[in-house]
Amino acid sequence: MEEMPHIVIVNAEDNEVTRYARSRVLQRAGYVVREAINGATTLALVAAEHPAVVLLDVKLPDINGYEVCRRLKSNPATASTVVLQVSANFVERDDKVRGLEGGADGYLIEPLSPDELIATIRSYVRLQQAEEKLAKANIELHRQATELRRSNEELQQFAYVVSHDLQEPLRAIGVYSELLISQYQQEAGAEVQEYARYITEGIERMRTLMTELLQYARVESQTKSVTLTDCHQIVLQVLEDLQLSIEETGAQITCDPLPAVYADRRRLAQVLRNLLSNALKYHGPQPVRIHISASQKDGEWHFQVHDNGIGIDPQFADRIFVIFQRLHLRHEYPGTGIGLAMCKKIIEQHGGRIWVESRLGEGATFFFTLPMEHTHNA
Ligand code: ADP
Predict the structure, then answer these.
(1) Residue 4, pLDDT score
(2) Are both 362 and 241 inside the same structural domain?
(3) 37, 67, 264 from 59: Cα distances, Å
(4) Which of 271, 320, 346 to mutate to test the pocket of ligand 1 (most atoms within 8 A of CB)?
(5) Which of 15, 101, 12 lies closest to 49, judged by CA?
(6) 141: part of which helix (H) or strand (E)?
(7) Which pLDDT score is estimated for 378?
(8) Which CATH number goes with the domain that contains 352?
(9) What pLDDT does residue 92 have?
(10) Which atom of ligand 1 is nearest to the CA of 336?
């Protein structure tokens, strides 16, 4: 017989002969057996030894088996032990129902052959061990989720403090340096004036960074108002916001019919605004062409924003979605490196994914998905 180290079975049976025979069978199969002759001993033994299974005679002399089972199952310290009620063959169907409804995990009827008993015990032990593993994994998962939530909140708080509270001293620096510059503008030489310009630019850049960082930090707490949103309307509104850059670049923007989806309208507009303003910004020498479309695939909406701009080396396709990661120097293309990280955060909060397909010099297509359940075609 296979060895089963330290799996404890409580054998609760007042009939000495039956108890003895059952214990021998269990011991021979490798289980550690603890015997109880009444209900009180059974309760104490289970609490002390944490057995995998209790074989519980329904007719114990002091507390009956049903009551013992009820108490075991209602006590969190003993509830995970498998309780198998055991009864003689003259048991009524109602007794069996009563046993199972009282919380027993199974009901065995004597006489049981040794093989039958061991096979039954083994299957319940397997079940109990799997349940225990699952419960432990659940606790660990819960712990990790709590930890993740905590560190996420901490990070958000940090980003909030950095971007919000630092705006005040920055404002002071801005105001006083402007005062200084205007007061000494006449006496100052060209060199000093140039330094002053650097200061002003630095302040402006810091302000933009902080505002965007603050927006990024707030995404989590503010994506709440999910409503049926007409994507076509959003695109029209975003194109209006970007009118100036569209005119400057002379871009030709086309758009297929877009669906209505359940989304946070303001956030989805932010995603499209970021993608479209990037498509306008990272253009090449040729006339700018941008196309927006959406299609259904595997239960999701796949949106595409395609441009014919400078394109992206595929090796950086993931990196550009990480906050502050840029592929260009600031004097080549202005920016903070927050836009795509923000898009990713918003889309993932909506249960979708975002990615880019591109080659250097061959334009870029940004894709994002949104789940289709609760959506309908506009
Ligand atoms: P930003 O535009 O402020 O730098 P983003 O997070 O929006 O920040 O974009 C990150 C980087 O991804 C950009 O610096 C740019 O190198 C690249 N990128 C984004 N959109 C495009 C595009 N349409 N074509 C080419 N490169 C792009």
Answers:
(1) 53
(2) yes
(3) 11, 10, 63
(4) 320
(5) 12
(6) helix 114-165
(7) 37
(8) 3.30.565.10
(9) 66
(10) 3
Question: What pLDDT digit, counting tens, does each position of 73-82 carry?
Answer: 999 899 889 9
Residues 193 and 313 placed together within one structural domain of the fold: no
Ligand 1 centroid to residue 279 C-alpha, Å: 8
Supply the CATH number for residue 32's domain.
3.40.50.2300
Burial class (CB in 10 A: 0-12, 13-18, 19+), 127: middle
Q: Residues near ligand 1 with C-beta < 6 Å?
A: 274, 278-279, 282, 307, 309-312, 320, 326-328, 335-341, 364
Per-residue model confidence as pLDDT tens digits over 180-208? 888 887 787 788 888 888 888 888 888 88
339 and 208 within one domain: no
> Of the candidates 310, 312, 247, which has an alpha carbon nearest to the alpha carbon of residue 284?
310
Segment 115-144 shows an average pLDDT of 91
Domain end marker among 197, 222, 247: 222
Q: Is 278 helix (H, G, I), strand (E, B) or coil?
A: helix
Residue 147 lies in a domain: no
State yes or no: pLDDT of 371 exceeds 50.
yes
Mean pLDDT of the region 84-94: 76
Instruction: Please give the distance, rounded to the nearest whole angstrom, from the Cα atom of residue 151 to the centre of ligand 1.
Output: 28
**Residue 94 confidence (pLDDT):** 74
Nearest residue CA, atom 11 of ligand 1? Answer: 326
Mean pLDDT of 315-322: 95
